[in-house]
Amino acid sequence: MDYIKIFSPATIANLSCGFDVLGLCLDNVGDEMTVRKIDEKTIRITKIEGADLPLETEKNVSGVAALALLHEWDTDYGFEIEITKNIKAGSGIGSSAASAAGSVFAINELLGRPYENKDLVRFAMQGEKLASGSAHADNVAPALLGGITLVRSYDPLDIIKIEAPEELFATVIHPQIELRTADARSVLKQHITLQNAITQWGNVGGFVAGLYTRDYGLIGRSLQDKIVEPIRGLLIPGFDRLKIACQTQGALGSGISGSGPSVFALSRGFETAQNAASAMSQVYDDMKLPYEIHISGINPEGIKILDKK
Amino acid sequence: MDYIKIFSPATIANLSCGFDVLGLCLDNVGDEMTVRKIDEKTIRITKIEGADLPLETEKNVSGVAALALLHEWDTDYGFEIEITKNIKAGSGIGSSAASAAGSVFAINELLGRPYENKDLVRFAMQGEKLASGSAHADNVAPALLGGITLVRSYDPLDIIKIEAPEELFATVIHPQIELRTADARSVLKQHITLQNAITQWGNVGGFVAGLYTRDYGLIGRSLQDKIVEPIRGLLIPGFDRLKIACQTQGALGSGISGSGPSVFALSRGFETAQNAASAMSQVYDDMKLPYEIHISGINPEGIKILDKK
Predict the structure, then answer these.
(1) What is the CATH class of B3-162+299-308?
(2) Would you kindly state where each structural domain of chain A is located, as residue ranges?
(3) Which of B19, B56, B224, B283 has the lowest CB atom count within 10 Å?
């Protein structure tokens, strides 16, 4: 096999209570990437459609992730990468993660799968480090594994995949403003109250329990964030109105997707997710703010192979 | 029914990662209590064996918890309570919780079960408030519900019961020193780093996932505490040696039981729990420190009725 074409999905990190540890894989939003073996021992980004991103390997997240993989798994050949970006950079649904995870996934396939998907996370994290200054895994893990992932620990890396309940659907609205992950991180306080932390880890426990027991009510009650949302929410236009809008439509809960500015809601059933989408759209229509909106099931497997030869 | 005799179990709160939210119910360590209906509309503590505790209703945790229940559920009669304490006060395995939970459980039975056990938690918490100054639920919840409990939220109270994996056993060693919960709380810092908090909620998520998937390794890896243990561990004689001792015997993990001074280990299988007990005993034998040690399965149902008529 010398050629592979993949779909690399968008992801929602944090999920309110799980800052830096939880992530969810979307099903119908994502980039396409093709990767080809080449004789020359190098990584080359030949084309990026849909976004103005650097082609230079060391400055491109997919390039850096690929180099991290090949630094460990030596070959005497190289790879050419083409990317069609559908996930907007800075949207908060794992644009850089899709590129980084996609590149190492595709190369691993072309190498004959020396690594399990879980083991690719640490290479993809190097792409995230380039993008945001922090080698976080909460987007690349769900992109590579699908479902909902928990990064229990970074040192050593310990990632748990949790299957999403079948009826869970996500609505994501992306106001067309750009918010850089690095900026969104810089507003965070480095110390928090023990009381808020206790509330937060109670909710992480509740959310995980809700996933395993398919208790949608518990999932919804656990989607709370006392730590990051009160600060980052201020950077997102109409944030409180979006939350109220989806709540009135019966969404289980809502919050900031990753570091924003996208806002997500989780719902039980497609119809509720659709109603949440209408209500959230109305908020931005009223504000005359351009936006994109997605309604998606939870992708159970992560990156998909579209073609190979 | 005018009389009931119950077994009210000891409990391990916090479980390392889950400060103030997680708790576990022990099976073979606990108090006995008898409660009788009396004509007079009052709560009377008639006898306490095995501990020097106040008989005055308003100063006794079981009295205060009973009053909280009867404040809401009015009767024209009262109750007499006798307690045989086997759980030492200040041991860190929920001595006050056993008394508070036991009293409201027994009275609820004699009233004809107007409340579900889960609804009794808030009354029992009033006993905890008397004992430690804080109306926490992480001991009374597992005592009343059994298994492992997660207090997701205090306002509103939202408690999730998780069944413990069958092969999980606890070892608890209690050095014969007294450490008051209120004192153990006062040493805690009220602000923590965001980084440590993230580690902690990653572990809570991992622990809960490990319970549902019966992944004993994950349960063990998640039994970590970067926040409370480094501070409270200093108050417990030989704490680091105890941790190493049970680890060398293959325990999954260990930590401070509640606010200490008891130290617990969780193991897969009774034999490992027994080996952990021997190794932990040896530490205190070497230090010539008197101790009590318990090996227990996880009590799936909480408080047990021994007799009623």
Answers:
(1) alpha beta
(2) 3-163+299-308, 168-297
(3) B56
B222 contacts A152? CB cut-off 8 A: yes
Contacts of A202 in chain B (CB under 8 A): 20-21, 150-153, 204
Give the C-alpha separation, A145 to A116, whole Å.
10
**Yes or no, beta carbons of B208 and A209 under 8 Å apart:** yes
Dihedral over Cα of B58, B62, B68, B69: its sign: negative
Q: How far apart are CA A306 and CA A163, in angstroms?
A: 23
The whole-angstrom distance between A200's CA and the closest CA on chain B is 7
Inter-chain touch B202–A151, beta carbons under 8 Å: yes
CATH 3.20.20.80 fits A168-297, yes or no: no
CATH 3.30.230.10 correct for A3-163+299-308: yes
Rg over CA atoms, chain A: 19
pLDDT tens, N- to C-terminus, chain B (309 residues): 899 999 999 999 999 999 999 999 999 999 999 999 999 999 999 999 999 999 999 999 999 999 999 999 999 999 999 999 999 988 999 999 999 999 999 999 999 999 999 999 999 999 999 998 889 999 999 999 999 999 999 999 999 999 999 999 999 999 998 666 667 777 788 999 999 999 999 999 999 999 999 999 999 999 999 999 999 999 999 999 999 999 999 999 999 999 999 999 999 999 999 999 999 999 999 999 999 999 999 999 999 999 999
Q: Choose among B19, B193, B204: nearest Cβ to A191.
A: B193
Nearest Cα to Cα of residue A161 among A180, A178, A170, A148 = A148
